[in-house]
Amino acid sequence: VLNAWVTVFVRAVDPQDSASVLMAARDLRYYVFGHDYNSNGLAYHGVAYPALIWCLTLVFGNDLLAAVVWNLLLGGAFLWLAYRIIRDLHSTQAALFAVAITAVMPPFIALASSVNDSMGGAAFCLAGIVFYLRWLAGGSCRWAFVAGAFLGLAYLFRYFYIGILVPFVVMAVLTKGSLRRGVWAAVCLGVGFVIAMAPLGMATLYAEG
Questions:
Q1: What is the mean predicted confidence (pLDDT) over 138-157?
Q2: Is 200 exposed, middle or buried (0-12, 13-18, 19+ CB in 10 A)?
Q3: What does the buried/exposed string (b/e) look like for 60-69 if buried means 16 or more CB atoms within 10 Å of the residue's CB?
Q4: Quick count: other Cβ atoms within 10 Å of Cβ 124?
Q5: Helix residue ranges, H only, the chain
Q6: What is this structure's pTM?
Q7: Which residues of 159-172 are buried (b: 16+ CB within 10 A; e: fewer)?
Q8: 133 in Cβ contact with 81 (< 8 Å)
Q9: Which of 46, 78, 177, 181 has the fewest Cβ atoms surrounding its Cβ within 10 A?
Q10: Cα–Cα distance measured from residue 143 to residue 40, given in angstroms and rounded to the nearest whole number
Q11: Are 128 and 148 in contact (CB under 8 A)?
C-alpha cells in the first residue's frame, strides 16, 4: 500500500506537464498585455485553466500558488458534484461512502493538489451530468442546454473533452419516451456546448494563428 502511494505521487503528476500549464498561463498573460506570444503552452492546454491561474495570480502574485489553489477548489467541486449525482441515482449513504473513498485515493489527492488542468475538466463534466440527469428526470430542455454549456466549459480545460459531447447526444436521442423531445434535447446540448466554448475557443485559435 505504501509503495502504491509513493508510486502515484511520484508518477501521477508529470513535472513537464505542470511546467506546460504554467507556461500557458504566462503566455495568456503576455498575450493579453500585448507582449510576444509563445504558443507552446496554449497549443496543448485549453485556455480555461491558464485564464483562472492568470486571474488569481493578480491576487497572490505567484502563479504556482494560484494554480494549486484553483485545483483544490475544483477538487472540492468535483467531490460535491459526485455526491449529488450518486445521491440522486442511489442514496445519501452510497454517495457519502463513494465520496469518502474518492477523497482519500492517491490519484485524486495528487491531481487536486498539483498543477494540471484535468481536475477542472472532470469537475465541469460532472456538472454537465448533474443537469443532464435533471433533464432526464422529466425536466425542461433548458437543463439539456445548461448541461451542454458545462461540457463546453470542460472542453476549454482540455481539448480532448470535445468527445464527451457525443455519448450525451446519443443517449438523449435514444432515451425512452418522445423521440421529438430527445432530438430537441440533443440540439440544446449541442447549442449549449458551442455557445460556452465559442468565445474563448475562438480567442485561442486567433492567438495560435
A1: 87
A2: middle
A3: eeebeebbbb
A4: 27
A5: 2-11, 15-32, 48-60, 63-89, 92-103, 106-112, 118-136, 142-155, 165-174, 179-208
A6: 0.76
A7: bebeebbeebbeeb
A8: no
A9: 177
A10: 37
A11: yes
